[in-house]
Design brief:
The structure is a single chain. The protein is 25% helix and 23% strand. It has 328 residues and is of the alpha+beta class. Strands 1, 2, 3, 4, 5, 6, 14 and 16 form an eight-stranded mixed β-sheet that branches. A three-stranded antiparallel β-sheet has the order 13-7-15. The two termini are 23 Å apart. 43% of the residues are buried. The protein binds 2-oxoglutaric acid and fe (ii) ion (FE2).
Length: 328
């Protein structure tokens, strides 16, 4: 928590802990940090996942935002079947360019292999996946298929509900109602040096700076340094200063971050709206390989909430009443 006492972060964390947490009956859930992240055991994603187990996994996701589902022996077909229960499978525009490097030509799998010859590794900065899409990915499901031999290669996650809640009230009020542009060329051309296919451009979209979560109604901060180019309603200088302040705030808020260690057979599932993540490239020159599948809902992040009928069939949008109950 902050060294200089303004107590906003403390109050936010207290409110976070006030959420009821019922015991689980069909899966084992072990929290990895007080404010974000849990390990899941006792489920086999290559076999049958009962309706009750699936509901408990959804609840564990709502409560913890990122789940390290351990001891899985899964194929990419299993990974896709699981992801499909949360939404429609995403096709990443860079998936094709990674075909050779990643060892798969499935457009629904984004594969990468980082080794001594890599110029960069995927996700080596705080970001949300593909927030430049008009309907950005809601859930990402990452299987790290090769781990570095001598440790390292963790992934860090930050709770973006708390990132918002820990700001002062006048500042939260100022951010509410603003929108920002998220631009794929920022992450992929400026970041990775990738170019769109001839005659095409990478997507760019406008999203609320503060959105409500479709499953809980809670607000979260939705800007990230990889994709967000500017806040629409502000001058460029104001936008740059505000975004910089928000990024520093997210980076320094260790009390609502977790750094998760991979094990053989871990499938990492994160709520890509409510968290940002950062892969840690501390294992150079060793190799680490991964395959990501992602799913999107029928709608993008909204500041107002979601009509129940707008929800994807497998996703429970927050009812207007639930949103009302959480509105402050
Ligand atoms: O390698 C990792 O830990 C995460 C990479 C990443 O950002 C992603 O797969 O979305
Ligand atoms: Fe990522």
């Amino acid at each position: 928590m902050s060294f200089y006492q303004d107590f906003h972060d403390k109050n936010a964390i207290e409110a976070w802990h006030a959420q009821p947490r019922a015991p689980y009956r069909t899966i084992e859930v072990t929290r990895l940090a007080p404010t974000i992240g849990a390990e899941i055991r006792g489920v086999d994603l290559a076999g049958d996942v009962s309706a009750e187990q699936f509901e408990e996994i959804r609840r564990a996701s709502r409560e913890n935002l990122v789940l390290a589902i351990r001891d899985q022996k899964i194929s990419s077909a299993d990974q896709k079947r699981f992801a499909r229960r949360f939404g429609t499978l995403h096709r990443h525009v860079l998936a094709k360019s990674r075909t050779v490097a990643g060892g798969t030509d499935d457009p629904e799998v984004l594969a990468w292999r980082t080794d001594a010859n890599s110029r960069y590794t995927a996700g080596d900065a705080w970001h949300a996946d593909v927030s430049c899409d008009a309907i950005p990915i809601w859930g990402s499901f990452l299987h790290v298929t090769r781990l570095p031999e001598h440790g390292g290669g963790d992934t860090a996650f930050v709770n973006m509900h708390l990132a918002y809640d820990a700001l002062s009230e006048p500042y939260r009020n100022f951010l509410d109602g603003l929108t920002a542009i998220h631009d794929g060329s920022l992450a992929w051309t400026a970041g990775y040096g990738s170019k769109p296919e001839p005659g095409k451009t990478f997507p760019a979209s406008e999203h609320p700076v503060v959105a409500r979560h479709p499953h809980t109604g809670r607000k979260f901060l939705y800007v990230n340094p990889a994709f967000t180019s500017h806040i629409v309603q502000l001058s460029r200088a104001e936008s740059a200063a505000v975004l910089e302040q928000l990024y520093r705030h997210v980076e320094k808020s260790l009390s609502f971050q977790v750094r998760i260690h991979w094990q053989p057979g871990t499938l990492m599932f994160w709520d890509n709206w409510a968290v940002q993540h950062h892969s840690v490239w501390d294992y150079y020159p060793e190799a680490r390989w991964g395959e990501r599948v992602s799913a999107y809902l029928a709608f993008g992040p909204s500041a107002q909430g979601y009509p129940a009928e707008a929800a994807h069939s497998s996703a429970d949008a927050a009812t207007p009443a639930a949103v009302e109950a959480l509105a402050q």
